[in-house]
Design brief:
The chain is α/β, with parallel strands linked by helices and 187 residues long. The chain has helices spanning 23-41, 58-64, 81-96, 113-122, 139-146, 175-185; strands spanning 17-18, 21-22, 47-48, 51-54, 71-76, 102-106, 130-134, 156-160, 166-170. The strands form 2 sheets. The protein has a 7-stranded mixed sheet with strand order 3-4-7-6-5-8-9, with helices on both faces. It has a two-stranded antiparallel ribbon with strand order 1-2. The longest helix is centred in the N-terminal third of the chain and has 19 residues, at 23-41. It is globular and about 40 Å long.
Length: 187
């Protein structure tokens, strides 16, 4: 029996066998086990490595936990270079002003949780910052829940005041954006 398939040959649509055990069966079983872990972990409020799973209703949780409090919410992705540049600015702001409440939401799917944590830790945002990661298969629904006028461009930052009025900013952050928000909110 051959261990390789020539991709120019017509496939015979039979299960590939490895030591007389169907490979596809093993793959299917592993896939279902992985799905089980993701679905169990996607219950609201459950943490995965200190990063909460952002599902429908999570924005309401974020807002309710901050009644009467201003906060900055940054939406980002591990594959977004301008987002990574913003992490430095956000980390510097937090170091200089530890009272600033910052919420980070990664638009990456939950399989990137470890990468998200690693990057946040690298930039000094691993503690003292609430971190979330998208955990539903249809990301546009979650984006719409965050902001119905937003089409997913990154980075996206929301500056909330104590009454939860917000100003949205698409594109890279500037120090002046943060300073203006802090002056208006008394931070």
């Amino acid at each position: 029996m051959r261990d390789t398939i020539n991709r120019f040959e017509k496939p015979d649509h039979r299960l590939l066998l490895l030591d007389n055990k169907p490979k596809s069966t093993v793959i299917v079983i592993l896939y279902f086990i992985a799905c089980l872990f993701v679905s169990v972990g996607s219950v609201q409020g459950v943490k995965a490595d200190d990063t909460r799973l952002f599902v429908s209703g999570s924005l309401t949780q974020i807002l309710n936990a901050r009644q009467g409090q201003p906060f900055l919410m940054a939406v980002w992705s591990v594959a977004c270079p301008p987002c990574i540049a913003d992490l430095n600015l956000i980390a510097n702001t937090l170091r200089e002003n530890p009272r600033v409440d910052i919420v980070m939401i990664s638009m990456d799917d939950a399989s990137y949780t470890q990468a998200v944590r690693t990057i946040l830790i690298k930039y000094g945002l691993g503690s003292g910052v609430e971190s979330w990661i998208f955990a539903e298969p249809y990301a546009p629904r979650l984006r719409y829940e965050i902001d119905s006028t937003w089409y997913g461009e990154l980075p996206r930052t929301y500056f909330y005041d104590a009454h939860h009025n917000r100003r949205a900013l698409s594109g890279g952050l500037r120090q002046q954006d943060i300073e203006d928000w802090m002056a208006k909110t008394g931070r």
